[in-house]
Amino acid sequence: MRDESREEPVLRVEHMRIGTLPAISFEVAAGECLAVEGPSGAGKTRLLKAIADLDPAPGHIFLDGVERLEMFAPAWRKAVRYCAAEPAWWTETARSAFCLDAAGAQRLERHLAAVGLEAADLDRPIALLSTGERQRLALVRALIDQPRVLLLDEPTTALDVAAAALVEEQIRYLLLAGRSVLLASHDRGLVARLAHLRLELARPVIAAARAAS
């Protein structure tokens, strides 16, 4: 039964099937963080990518009551943004990945400062950046269009303690601003501090044939 005291969900997933997992259904409201938990190989990344419309998966997904199939794919992916644990880049520098108006440029400056980066980092070759710098720049890239829902896959795994704290604080700010966050992380402390809801994925059972003796 639905908890009537909760706000209407921003994101609603109904009967989504990922691999051999049972059908998955859940809701996330504005300002809520849902932690997607489970052992490696359970399907956390596949679930996030399916919600972002990057991988096909049976089921129904709604954003503010509008089903994904009723929206153009670019509009959905702009509003429901996936941020990978190992982000890919298709440009020589991060700056080339941004095409912004004046308001967007101001947001970019704020987001960079919030995660401990400088404007000069945008012009350094991606290949020369550390893994943690690339990861934080990818988070900035995901935030720049102000998505309604942010899907974070191990957002602090490559960061030192100081940088991880900045990213955590940025996620907390997004929640206070009414964004919805899905968080897949093996950092139990991070999950405990941020998550309002939890979704546990069990490891799929793989049947192995035994040769007759």
What does the secondary structure layout of this molecule look like, with pairings?
Elements lengths: L8 E8 L7 E6 L3 E5 L6 H8 L8 E4 L2 E2 L5 H7 E4 L18 H13 L16 H13 L5 E5 L7 H16 L3 E5 L3 H7 L2 E4 L13
Parallel strand pairs: 3-8, 3-9, 6-7, 7-8
Antiparallel strand pairs: 1-2, 1-4, 4-5
Can you tell me about this structure?
With 213 residues, this protein is an alpha/beta fold. It has six helices and nine strands; from the N terminus they run βββαββαβααβαβαβ. The protein has a five-stranded parallel beta sheet with strand order 6-7-8-3-9, sandwiched between helices. Strands 2-1-4-5 form a four-stranded antiparallel beta sheet, with no helix packed on it. β1 and β2 (24-29) form a beta hairpin. The termini are far apart. 28% of the residues are buried.
* The CATH H-level homologous superfamily: P-loop containing nucleotide triphosphate hydrolases
C-alpha Rg (nearest Å): 18 Å
Total count of helical runs of at least 4 residues: 6
| Text of the CATH class | Alpha Beta
Named CATH architecture: 3-Layer(aba) Sandwich
The H/E string reads EEEHEEHEHHEHEHE
Ends apart, CA distance between termini: 52 Å
**CATH fold category name:** Rossmann fold
Contiguous low-pLDDT stretches (5 residues minimum) are 206-213
Order of adjacent strands in the largest pleated sheet: 6-7-8-3-9
Computed structural class: alpha/beta
Task: Report the major sheet.
Answer: 5 strands, parallel
Helix amount: 25-40%
The overall pLDDT average reads: 91
Count every beta strand, where a strand is a DSSP E run of 2 or more residues.
Answer: 9
Shape field? globular
Quote the beta fraction.
15-25%
Number of domains: 1
